[in-house]
Structure formats: structure tokens, C-alpha cells
Predict the structure.
Amino acid sequence: MHQEERYDVGGVTFARPFKAVRLGHVGVWTADTEASEERLVDLFGLHQTERMTGKEGELLGCFTTCNTDHHALVAINPATADPERRAYYEVGATLNQISFQVNSLREVNEAYRFFKARGIKVQRIGRDLPGSNWAVYAYDPDGHRVELFYGMEQVGWQGRSKPAAMYNHLPYQEFELPMQAELLEVTQAREQNIDLLSGYGRDSALPYRFDVGGILQQRPFKVSAMGPVRLFCSDLAASERFYTETIGLTRSAEVEWEGHRCVFLRAGAEHHSIALYPLALRERLKLGSRTLLMSLGMRVQTYRQLKDARKFLGEAGLKEVNLPVALHPGIAYAVRFMLDDIHCIELYFEMEQFGTGPVVRASDMAWPDQLPGSASSYAEQTRPGPMA
């Protein structure tokens, strides 16, 4: 890591040529993709934006969202994995990907060069479909894919994703900049008489029977965002270096629990986006040996919704998992349920936020060429979708 080197990222200087500004979406490998699809849509209430099917009609991938991003949580069948990712899966990397947003397409290119120059293992760079996001993928020390993406497709009030006829496949290589604005893609689609409302979208068919803050809903809670990803690490120090020095996350806290050091890292103002735990804790906590993923977070909107979600999911037959409160600092109340026989979902309703502090200007006249970056820079200035 060349600590003395600084890069201009939108006029603010950092130790790397990009800034991860928020946790965007995550994906898991799941052999029973259809069962995961049913639970994500019916029990957790996510909106389905795409189904990837095989030649025989079998479900290979389920894309779901809880906000306007095309996808927030993806369940992918490991049968689709290339040999390299399959090998990582077999030894516990059942987290298909964890994705952080950057605010410009140029940062994706620059991140690719940065990773390659420092010997970081890169899976690929390219434009992802479905979702239309532009991304580069690198592997963490345990084989989890970490994505830096720009320009996630946004799903609007009509609940339909971009039609497949609009997909523009690009070679897996650095992007030739500048690329055209995506608003022009919409204009071109209209000129080609593509039905912009012909994309995919599906919600649960459950009856609307719960009063949730005065709105009738299908379940007594609403997932509003993805939350922290908790990982068991074969080498915690190596993983911590990767996520801080390579990806640029900020250390928020660390705790020691029964002699084990645990580390909590953030992208934006939230207390933590990723939590790292030593692998030895997996057995101590009596969690399954088939995955390095402790849990995936989902945020609900109120404390009452959290309590009602616990009752609803328990009555639906999901297995609840109890973990020590000390292992999720920054979150006072959380409940966990198994999505399948491997993966655990953590529901919570609020997380401690780090303030950005006062904005101080050097003088009335000073407009420096660049500003020094800090953990607060761009912490709350995210652009969910592409520059139109």
C-alpha cells in the first residue's frame, strides 16, 4: 500500500482513486433457489425484479429489491459458478458478492487499474445485466467477490425493470470514457419502439391484512435497506487490511469477546457495513460449518415493525438464531432467522450513525484545487442511480 500516493476523486483526495460510499447490494449462493425466492418475496416482502432461468426452465437466479435499486439481494444457484468461484464456494464462500457504490464510472476504471497494480486478484470488469450497473469485482482473502459499482438501474413506481431488449452487452474490459448518458439509451429505446414497461416485476400474492403505520400491508413490517454483512475470516488481520487499505473502508470499532478480536468497518456514516470475526468464533457460536457468512442485515423502519417481524417470521416456521448483543455494537435490537439451511438474515431497525462534524472553510477567498479526504467525505452524498 503506497500511503504517500494521493488520488483526486471528484476534487477530494484519497489514498485510492475511488471512494466506496455505501453498501449497495449483496448476493448469496443457494442450491435451492426456488425456496429462497419464495421466502424472500413472500416472507421478507422483497420485490422481485428478475428471474434467470436455464434451458429447461429451472430457476438459476432470483433478483429482489427493497428500494428503488434494481436489486438489493440476489440468490444465485452455484451451478452457474465458474470453476474458480465454485472452488471458493466449496470451502465456505457462500456469499456470492458484496457490493459498494462509487459515485462515478471513472472510479470503476481507476479501481480496476489500482487493483491490478497492487496484485489484488480481479475477477472481471464490465457492465452487469440485469441491473445495468457498471462494475469491477475483486476477491477478498477468503474468496468473497467484492464489487465496486456505478449506475445501478432504478425501478420506479410501475415496479418494472428495464426490458431485456434494452440490454447493451459490452466486452469485459476497461470502459472507453466518456460513455453516453443513460438517458440517451432510453431515448434510443423509444425510437426503436421498445415497450419500456415490458420488463419484469413481481410481488407476493399474500393477502393485504396488516396495518403498518396506517398502510395495509402483506406482512407487519417493511424492509427498507440492506444492512451489515458479517463474515468469519480465516485470517482476520488479512481481511481487515483488504477492506481498509484496498477497499478504503473506515474502522468504526473493535470489540473483544471471549478473547476474540472482532472488527467493524463502515463505508458511509453508518456504524458498520461489514463486521469481521475470527473463524474460531463460528464453532463457539454453534453456527454451521458450511459458510463463512455469519449473517446478512435487513433494516426495517420502526421498533414495532421489528417486534412484529419476529412474531410473523417465527409463526411462518423460520428458525430463529440467538447471538450475543456484544457482537453487534451500534445496533441495540436485532433478530435473526435462517433464510435456508446455510444463510442467516439479521433484522434491525436502527444503527448508530457517525456525524460529519462542522464544515469549516479556511477563508472567505480560498478555493483550493483539491480538498483532503476523510471518513466523512461523500458519506451522505450518494447517487443511487446513474447520472441521467
